[in-house]
TrEMBL record, chain A:
Protein's name according to its UniProt entry: Putative aldouronate transport system permease protein
One GO cellular component term noted in the UniProt record for this chain: plasma membrane
Domain ABC transmembrane type-1: 91-306
Family: Belongs to the binding-protein-dependent transport system permease family.
Transmembrane segment boundaries: 32-51, 95-116, 137-157, 177-201, 229-248, 285-306
Keyword vocabulary terms for this entry: Cell membrane, Membrane, Transmembrane, Transmembrane helix, Transport
GO biological process: transmembrane transport
UniProt xrefs under InterPro entries: MetI-like (IPR000515), MetI-like_sf (IPR035906), UgpAE/MalFG_permease (IPR050809)
From TrEMBL, chain B:
Organism of this sequence: Paenibacillus aquistagni
Keywords, ordered alphabetically: Signal
UniProt superkingdom: Bacteria
Designated name of the protein: Putative aldouronate transport system substrate-binding protein
Region forming the signal peptide: 1-26
Taxonomy of the source species: Bacteria, Bacillati, Bacillota, Bacilli, Bacillales
Length: 320, 531
């Protein structure tokens, strides 16, 4: 491996011939590569070009001077960030909620995909998949409206409890119930959608393996654990690494719409904090960019770490 | 070959059209759309389309009524109206101003730190130097705000028009903020044997709420809300009466020792919090009061009739609104069931904020054309004149009002209706706030106006005689720094959260105060080092 790399880097001729081969391959399959263009344009315009705005974190942004013209202030914005205890709290809270989500919520789409895969009646499978995927298309504003109406003091659940002469429960104002509520609603909303990627991975498994297993007398359960799961493991690993890379980002829409003054101490995650400092107090885009940059850096470090751990454990990583 | 040529030609045409449209739309904002030249009759020759943003909810079709038409015809303009919801007012204006999308003129909830930034960054229109001579009525009202002159000193010109609260009809001296007036159910008070007074302490109001909770004189059962406050109302009517520096407006203040302090850390704030927590624990406040938005608290009082106490505010027009809502929703005469009063702290002292004579401000787009700016200023100047004020607040002479035998104003509107019913969403009173005219407006019932003035006078008297009115400290208000901006808290949410936490309130409050020190202390240090 090492010698091959040295040979590659030293052999200029070989390197250029590799590029030539790549280019000729691209030209050969140019129609397929053309399909990449919209995605690439999107990536450049919406992901890479805005990165120039990250320089705001090191500037005292003035709208009239623009991003380039605003004066540099070094790490001054970061000193303001780290002296705010609400920021530190928000970081820990974000990690806390997302780690819990990762361990509780992550397996659900895999389980659902496995279960859907075992359904043999095509119509039933489609029905379940539609029912499970549908919540993904509802916005968090609608979902939180429903949740609030169901769980409010005069909502459906408490009214039912009152009718049965049972004590009512303050669901919406309880700090203890907030995180479970966030996780439960997120599982309900995202599981069906998340299962699609695993279903796609399952459909890519060579059917011969199942046929051979059947001939050998393997039960459905054995096929699931010995064939299906090992085959989708690379996808699971990649999804897990990506999830770890998003540990510092929480669903803003969900938490913002379900939170209230009573749950402030458990609901102000980084995204909500960034929103608050950007729009609810005096505007300071440099300050909020500094917070966002910090979050992205931590996310990137976590992503690289997870990738490394996955490789150390013998699995596939994101970067080869 | 032929096909290729055809396609290219079509593409070229499409591209040209796109580019032309782009150019037209890109340049249209800057282009002058007409002049302010007038014809022989004094009418403007050219019609201008002016975009305006305010928090008055103008519904579809309402621009067609006679009132709006009058202003559009008189100033030959067409409105492009942008309604801004109260909840997103600050946020939306911030986005508009920062992104250069501010309408030609907008009502903005003035924040000093933001104002300084916006002016420095050229995000607001700078008025011509001679504007005060050209629009004297606006200038006269502007001079009463105090803020206008201070900002001119700081920035060397006029960029903002602070909106005067009072102009010619100041109800009391010193003028105290209109907030801190509550309404309670008079009929229920009589039923439970609670004495009606003009002034109550917070604990007296809780006593009343307890009686109502025990006896349920309105027979509303489980829907009863003894004290129907949302988080903001609770701050205004429970915490502020006990701690005048608990609110954002006066949180940083100069104490008797000549040093600056942070009000939320005062023992008095803890007292207010303790009373609020007691009210919550006893079930006098709604279990989910902190989730209520806007008018949800007052709606229990005036729409569903399930509340014993609500936050009202001191303007006569607010009382008139309650009257209308109760008639419409509950079919009751509010005069028979509503009593208004002001709230004292539990130590018997009156606390509130000294009223600075402005609330919010008008700002203009930096890209506005001179012609549009002048046209708007012409409208503002007229709207601030006596004639303009009469039309804005009374409607049309001979049709909506007349002068009586003794030259007093007499409303000609049918009993039980208001100008708002006839001409909804009168946003044209952009500059001078309606508070001033409401003191003398005959369209508002005289009893309500008299009561509002009495509350103002009581506030002034109680404030002077042993009360604690938080002064409007120009040094603090006009001080701008990154630290001060960072130490801006949403106090109503913070307080609601504190009283809802489990454990000892005093210990939680101390912990909370401590947690804010890293942001608060730098501001105090900066203020104490001001020359």
């Amino acid at each position: 491996m090492k010698s091959a790399a040295i040979e590659e880097s030293n052999g200029d001729g070989k390197g250029s011939s590799k590029i030539k081969t790549l280019l000729s391959e691209i030209w050969k399959h140019r129609m397929v590569y053309t399909l990449l263009i919209p995605g690439l344009i999107w990536l450049i315009v919406f992901a890479y070009m805005p990165m120039g705005g990250l320089s705001l974190a090191f500037k005292d942004y003035k709208a009239n001077l623009g991003i380039c013209g605003s004066p540099w202030v070094g790490f001054e914005n970061f000193t303001y960030v780290f002296r705010d205890p609400a920021f530190i709290d928000a970081v820990w809270r974000t990690l806390y909620i997302n780690i819990i989500k990762l361990f509780i919520q992550f397996p659900f789409p895999i389980l659902v995909a496995l279960m859907l895969n075992e359904l043999r009646m095509r119509r039933t499978k489609k029905l379940f998949q539609t029912v499970l995927t549908f919540p993904h298309f509802l916005s968090w504003i609608i979902v939180s409206g429903v949740v609030i109406n169901v769980l409010a003091y005069d909502g459906l659940v408490n009214s039912a409890l009152a009718m049965m002469n049972l004590p009512t429960i303050n669901f919406l104002g309880s700090e203890k119930m907030f995180v479970p509520m966030i996780i439960f609603t997120d599982i309900w909303k995202s599981t069906g959608w998340g299962a699609i990627i695993y279903l796609a991975a399952i459909s890519g498994i060579d059917q011969d393996q199942f046929e051979s297993a059947e001939i050998d007398g393997a039960s459905r359960m054995q096929q699931m654990f010995r064939i299906t799961l090992p085959n989708i493991l690379p996808t699971v690993t990649i999804m897990f690494i990506l999830s770890v890379g998003g540990l510092m980002s929480s669903g803003f829409d969900q938490i913002f719409n379900l939170a209230n003054a009573a749950t402030k101490n458990v609901s102000e995650v980084l995204d909500v904090y960034i929103y608050r400092i950007t729009f609810q107090s005096a505007t300071d885009f440099s300050f909020s960019t500094a917070v966002s940059l910090f979050r992205s850096l931590v996310n990137m470090i976590l992503l690289l770490l997870a990738d490394r751990v996955a490789k150390m454990m013998g699995g596939d990583g994101l970067f080869r | 070959m032929k096909t290729t040529t055809k396609l290219s030609w079509k593409s070229l045409v499409a591209l040209t059209i796109c580019l032309t449209m782009l150019l037209v739309s890109a340049c249209s904002n800057q282009a002058s759309e007409g002049s302010n030249e007038k014809d022989s009759s004094g009418a403007y020759k050219d019609k201008l389309k002016i975009s305006v943003a305010s928090t008055i909810n103008l519904k579809d079709g309402e621009l067609d009524n006679k009132f709006h038409q009058y202003w559009m015809d008189k100033f030959n303009l067409e409105w492009d109206y942008n309604y801004v919801e109260w909840d997103s007012w600050g946020e939306k204006l911030r986005l508009w101003i920062n992104s250069g999308d501010l309408p030609d003129v907008a009502a903005w909830n003035y924040i000093h730190g933001d104002a300084m930034n916006y002016i420095d960054q050229g995000l607001l229109y700078k008025f011509p130097d001679d504007w005060k001579e050209r629009w004297p009525n606006v200038a006269a009202a502007y001079s009463l705000t105090g803020l206008g002159d201070k900002l001119e000193e700081l920035k060397g010109g006029t960029y903002i028009l602070p909106r005067p609260v009072y102009y010619e009809n100041k109800p009391a001296d010193p003028l105290v903020n209109q907030i801190g007036v509550i309404a309670l159910r008079k009929d229920w008070a009589e039923a439970v044997g609670f004495e009606l007074k003009d002034v109550y302490t917070t604990s007296e109001l809780m006593d009343y709420a307890r009686l109502v909770k025990e006896q349920d004189p309105g027979k509303v059962g489980s829907s009863l809300v003894p004290i129907s406050y949302n988080a903001a109302d609770a701050l205004t009517n429970i915490i502020m009466p006990n701690s005048e520096h608990a609110r954002v407006e006066s949180a940083f203040y100069k104490g008797e020792d000549g040093q600056y302090h942070w009000g939320p850390a005062d023992q008095e704030t803890l007292t207010g919090l303790q009373i609020m927590q007691q009210a919550y624990k006893e079930g006098l406040l709604n279990p989910e009061f902190y989730t209520w938005k806007n008018s949800e608290g007052s709606d229990n009082f005036r729409v569903s009739g399930t509340a014993a106490i609500t936050s009202l505010g001191g303007l006569a027009s607010y009382r008139q609104d309650v009257d209308k809502a109760m008639k419409k929703n509950l079919n009751v005469e509010s005069d028979d069931v509503v009593h208004t009063a002001i709230v004292l702290g539990d130590d018997g002292k009156y606390r509130n904020l000294e009223q600075v004579n402005f609330w919010s401000a008008l700002v203009f787009s930096p890209d506005i054309s001179t012609e549009k700016f002048e046209r708007i200023m012409d409208l503002l100047d007229y709207s601030t004149s006596k004639d303009g004020q009469m039309i804005l607040n009374m409607g049309f002479e001979g049709e909506d009002w007349k002068y009586g035998d003794n030259n007093e104003l007499v409303s000609l509107l049918p009993e039980g209706t208001s100008l708002e019913d006839k001409y909804p969403s009168r946003f044209e009173g952009l500059y001078l706030l309606g508070d001033d005219f409401s003191v003398i407006n005959p369209a508002i019932k005289k009893d309500y106006r008299d009561r509002a003035v009495l509350h103002y006078q009581d506030k002034a008297k109680l404030g002077k005689e042993g009360g604690k009115l938080a002064p409007y400290d120009w040094d603090v208000q006009l001080y701008d720094s990154k630290s001060k901006n960072q130490a801006t808290f949403d106090y109503e949410k913070e307080y609601a959260n504190l009283i809802l936490q489990s454990g000892d309130l005093e210990a939680n409050w101390k912990k909370w105060v401590e947690s804010k020190q890293s942001l608060v202390q730098p501001v105090l240090d900066e203020l104490n080092n001001l020359k």
